[in-house]
Design a protein that fits this description.
With 333 residues, this protein is of the alpha/beta class. The protein is built from seven helices and 16 strands. A hairpin with a 2-residue loop joins β10 and β11.
């Protein structure tokens, strides 16, 4: 069995005749050309069937293959034009089974243009053909979705046949949260008349861990590195002298990626403990009223005695001094 996905066109053709494109100049080849021109086949759509003669023709400057039926034959088979179908050919029975294929995919980049109306979506003819959107010069309103955002837009195709881009008004780009210049995967469902945008690649990568570390070490140094030292002094408001090269190297590290070493903390200052001589044992009330004055230690005065056997009257300190006699002036004793 061979198969192909084609768009159905209902036109004014002779009864019991089906035209098929043999291929498109800008699209894929049609494998159903193996049926051969003038072959009589049976068309089957569900429970409906009809006989017809196949006529092959050149697709010309088209982007997607198609098959064409007359209006009476299309009604008999319950087929609707401007829809996409998958045709499967059985050479043994010489029959073509027609199955609906409503979902099509493509990819395109987004651009914004103020010339496009805020309620419109401009799709090039090539992209229009790939997605299976009808090209009948009429406005077709679709639901455009991207993530959790959606908007109803009218689709139009530009006059240039080879323009394959997709343009929106800047307001629509912001409403749908799209990014211009970014490539998106597009999925169109003919039944729901819904066009879905999906990102093809991941979000642009930011700075890696190494870059973040380098920026942090080269920026304002919290531990008093080179940048803070070379700036204005907080206390005086004047510029301080820059650090020497050796200090900068130590703060940035050998490769410029390591953060500066943390500043050492000073040990808390300890006050001397009071000595035993200065401890005040008095009551709190006495401490407030009378200051504690140091008392002088009373040492006994030396006692002098006259030495034995000496006539010179020398005295020698032997013990306690004898009580002194009161002084009396001469002539009054």
């Amino acid at each position: 069995m061979i198969s192909s996905i084609l768009d159905l066109i209902v036109s004014d053709l002779p009864d019991r005749t089906v035209h098929m494109t043999s291929g498109c100049a800008y699209g894929e080849e049609n494998p159903l050309t193996e049926i051969g021109d003038g072959t009589e086949i049976t068309l089957i759509n569900g429970n409906h069937s009809a006989k017809a003669v196949v006529r092959l023709r050149s697709g010309g400057e088209c982007f997607h293959g198609s098959f064409e039926l007359g209006a009476p034959l299309a009604r008999q088979l319950r087929l609707i034009g401007n829809k996409r179908f998958k045709l499967v050919y059985d050479p043994d029975r010489k029959s073509i089974k027609i199955v609906s294929s409503p979902v099509s995919a493509a990819s395109a980049s987004i651009s914004s243009d103020t010339k496009v109306g805020s309620g419109r979506l401009s799709i090039g003819y090539a992209l229009l053909s790939q997605l299976g959107l009808p090209d009948d010069n009429r406005d077709h309103t679709l639901t455009i979705r991207h993530g959790g955002s959606s908007r109803r837009l009218s689709v139009r195709s530009p006059a240039n046949l080879f323009e394959g881009g997709l343009k929106l008004h800047p307001d629509s780009v912001r409403a749908l949260k799209l990014r211009t210049g970014t490539n998106y995967k597009l999925s169109y469902d003919q039944r729901a008349r819904e066009l879905v945008f999906m990102r093809t690649g991941g979000a642009p990568s930011g700075a890696g861990p190494a870059k973040r570390i380098a920026h942090r070490s080269e920026g304002a140094n919290r531990s008093g590195g080179a940048n803070r030292s070379s700036g204005a002094s907080r206390s005086g408001g004047t510029a301080a002298s820059p650090l020497p090269a050796s200090a900068k190297d130590r703060s940035k590290g050998a490769a410029g990626l390591r953060p500066a070493a943390p500043k050492r903390k000073r040990a808390p200052r300890r006050l001397p403990e009071p000595s035993a001589a200065t401890v005040d044992d008095r009551r709190p009330a006495d401490r407030l009223s009378k200051p504690n004055r140091p008392t002088k230690s009373a040492t006994p005065a030396p006692v002098f005695h006259s030495a034995k056997g000496s006539g010179s009257g020398k005295q020698v300190a032997t013990g306690q001094a004898a009580p002194s006699k009161p002084y009396m002036p001469k002539g009054r004793a």
